[in-house]
Specification:
Structural class: alpha/beta
CATH class of the largest domain: Alpha Beta
Radius of gyration: 25 Å
Largest sheet: 5 strands, parallel
Number of helices: 18
Helix content: 40-55%
Shape: globular
Number of strands: 19
Length: about 575
């Protein structure tokens, strides 16, 4: 299935754009992008472009933060053993690294536990039993635990006290923990509920340092803010003012954080900007989830020996290549399942059974391509487990909640959610998904779209513009990377590169020795094979190109990363 992408031009007020250009001293394309994101007066726009440390809220208004600090201090005073338990993605691992590093700094007896590759996510009863048997006195969770009522109860029965730090949506009941530090609790007074799980752990650490060792707060921020930034970039959280400030402050400290493993890994992938953290560092660290031992990536971040870091990074690269291959296979499997089971031309939501795990990445990519929510399920443990991703503005949690009487459980975020359903309820649940989407959303508007921030004269594409655009970083949820339209780009030659030459780089016509910019179509080599002959474009080819902007370090020129294009006839 292939659906034509709709180009939607954002149209900020021209007077607003001119005022931002004048008062902020930024180029017009940057002013348009800022206005398109809702920052229309110079003061709010400046706060957005230059988030200060003052935007980072103090932890004191988080629910149960006082009780959590009190219990950890008691453990320190009594020389109790503390275990940090985290999910194995970048968000959880980063938060775990914060707390483990801090507790070691405070000379605590600390260990850590991360579920393995096949364990799934969340707090597991088996791990609780193992920690209790090993003599653990206090269990700190990171990025999980809010809905683990049974597991926390099991820990209590085994004599373990539990402090939960998490950012997932709570259920009606909270676990019977000593503290449940979660900004999304209904009774939370914290002014921001969009923190990453690792950032919540950072807040707990900050509160502990302020109480226990206030003179060490700068020392704490040196390593904890970069980890909180990594968690924030790595998780699907809104990039509002506080999260932008966390990322900026953390990035500024990254190469002076004292964490050898983090610095070595960031240097290996060539991190020079916040964008590099998102595009290069996070994917490499997340690839560590392919390791059999769940603690592997955490140990990379905590490693102090550069030689061992180098060996670990080689393993990470191997896992990343394995993950790339698997994701390509998963995308193909999902595509085949869709085409075999439903008519994607008429379906409002693509709900299909799969025979193997496909993961969120494949669902997200194909949801964007098809312009439909994608939900998959497969037989597992005597029932069905599944999940969904959506490019259209559909709240999957709301969709699943509408049929919650048919589900054993459901969880996640509005744009990325999972569920468990019994065989007898599968058919009505699938029908219920389609009915809910059809009745609550304008399905006729479902189609791939690209929001274009404005037209850009190719002659204005230079390093200074890229430097100004970098002030909009970090990009992600709530702050999409700006997209610009370059019209009438005449392409003279093309080079294919990457594994199986699946990427292509286009060179505009002009003096070959003085290329003004390059155009890269990632995973799009097949789109241009018919117009290329020996690297040269056979016939004059003129394109209107929509894409994001970055810098081509190899060519030393600005680079347009293609989102969509149309060839002029």
């Amino acid at each position: 299935m292939s659906v034509d992408t709709e180009w939607v031009f954002q149209t900020p007020d021209p007077g607003t754009v001119r005022r931002l250009v004048t008062e902020l001293g930024v180029p017009e394309p940057v002013a348009r992008a800022v206005a398109n994101r809702g920052y229309t007066d110079p003061r709010s726009a400046r706060r957005f472009l230059e988030p200060s440390p003052a935007e980072i809220n103090r932890p004191s208004s988080l629910p149960d933060i006082g009780a959590a600090v009190e219990r950890i201090e008691a453990a320190l005073d009594r020389d109790e053993t503390i275990a940090v338990y985290a999910d194995r993605d970048v968000d959880g691992i980063s938060g775990a690294a914060v707390l483990v590093t801090l507790l070691r700094d405070l000379e605590a007896a600390v260990e850590y536990c991360v579920p393995g590759k096949w364990d799934g996510y969340g707090l597991h009863a088996d791990h609780v039993d193992e920690l209790a048997a090993s003599g653990t006195d206090l269990l700190l969770t990171v990025d999980c635990g809010t809905t683990a009522l049974e597991e926390v109860g099991r820990a209590n029965d085994a004599g373990l006290d539990v402090v939960v730090t998490d950012h997932h949506q709570p259920e009606e009941r909270l676990p019977e923990a000593v503290a449940c530090v979660n900004p999304r609790r209904d009774d939370s007074a914290y002014p921001h509920d969009g923190l990453a799980g690792g950032a919540v752990a950072f807040k707990l650490g900050q509160a502990l340092v302020e109480s226990r060792a206030p003179t060490r707060i700068e020392r704490y921020h040196r390593y904890a803010l970069p980890l909180a930034a990594l968690a924030t970039v790595g998780d699907y959280v809104p990039l509002d003012l506080e999260n932008r400030a966390i990322v900026r402050e953390g990035f500024d400290r990254l190469f002076d954080c004292g964490l050898v493993g983090l610095v070595e890994t960031a240097s290996h992938v060539g991190v020079e900007s916040v964008r590099d953290v998102s595009w290069s560092l996070v994917p490499l660290l997340n690839a560590g989830q392919e390791a059999e031992a769940g603690e592997f990536t955490l140990e990379v971040l905590l490693e102090r020996d550069p030689a061992r870091c180098s060996t670990a990074i080689e393993r990470l690269e191997g896992y990343r290549e394995e993950r790339r291959r698997e994701r390509a296979e998963r995308r193909e499997h999902l595509r085949e399942c869709v085409e075999a089971q439903i008519d994607p031309e008429t379906a409002d939501v693509l709900v299909v059974e799969v025979q193997r795990y496909v993961g969120g990445g494949a669902m997200s990519q194909l949801s964007e391509e098809w312009g439909r929510p994608v939900v998959t399920y497969r037989r597992r443990d005597g029932g069905y487990r599944g999940g969904g991703r959506t490019a259209p503005d559909v709240d999957l949690l709301e969709v699943f909640e509408a049929s919650s009487d048919l589900l054993e459980e459901y969880w996640g975020h509005p744009g990325a959610a999972g569920f468990k359903v019994s065989p007898g309820n599968l058919e009505p649940f699938v029908a219920g998904i389609a009915e809910t989407v059809r009745t609550r959303y304008e399905v006729d508007a479902f189609r791939p779209t690209v929001e274009i921030d404005g037209r850009l004269d190719p002659d204005r594409l230079d390093r200074s513009l890229l430097e100004e655009l970098a002030r909009l970083e970090p990009f992600g949820n709530g702050n999409a990377e700006p997209e610009y339209l370059l019209e009438g780009v005449e392409v003279a030659r093309c080079e294919f590169f990457g594994d199986d030459e699946r990427h292509c780089k286009l060179f505009p016509a002009g003096d070959a020795e003085e290329v003004a910019f390059t155009v890269v179509c990632w995973d799009g080599a097949g789109s241009f094979e018919d117009v290329v002959d020996g690297g040269l474009v056979a016939d004059p080819a003129v394109y209107d190109i929509v894409g994001t902007l970055s810098f081509d370090d190899y060519a030393g020129t600005p680079q347009v990363n293609v989102t969509d294009y149309r060839r002029r006839e």
